[in-house]
Hints:
- By secondary structure, the protein is α+β, with helices and mostly antiparallel strands.
- The chain has helices at 2-14, 22-30, 53-70; strands at residues 43-45, 87-91, 97-98, 101-106, 110-112, 117-120, 127-134, 138-148, 154-160, 170-173, 177-187, 191-199, 204-215.
Amino acid sequence: MKVLTALLVAAALVAPAVAQNPVQQEIQKNHKGKVVTPAVKPVLLHTGKPITQQDKEQLRAAIVKTFKSKTPVNKGKTQQAAAPQPTLVKVSPSELFSSGVYTEMNQPDYVNISSDQIIFSPGESSSLDIAINVNANTTYILNFKVDSMAVTPQFTILPTLPSGAVNGAETFTGIHRNNEFAYALVSDSTGVINVTLYSSNAYWDFKSCEITATPVN
């Protein structure tokens, strides 16, 4: 049933968008809560190699440090003694929906859910959007795996904000074939955050994205 639902959604999303802000409109239709912005500028990690657990832990530590430095400490609350427990969800071409996560395709070049294949064209209009139901004071590490069709693909990743402005856009040069990178953000309120990924110069194939959520203690 999930695969059938994904196929129907994929077919609907291939058509060109006519709304003024289709990404935000789709998020609000499929998610409860308002569209919110990251508390601090998201951080990208791309080394040209697979992302390790240590990489993700260091990435989370870096964004938590930035978040705490810019967030006033509430002295009326007591810090939790227990270590925060992370939760992990994964989306892929055959599983476009997961707990609290909704994946949208904007003008993909080719879609074959049964073969686990979604290919995007070069250009900002052909993009992947991942909308996440976020909780306050929680970090989210998005671990992407994509397959590029160019020798030096240029990727851009950014959060889409309610106003249409962008914050935290990062552009980087990938490698031919298998690419893996991580994008960390933290939310200071409950709602929905949408992350957009596209390539300006390459055809690319979406493989998967793992999202790890961990409360800030």
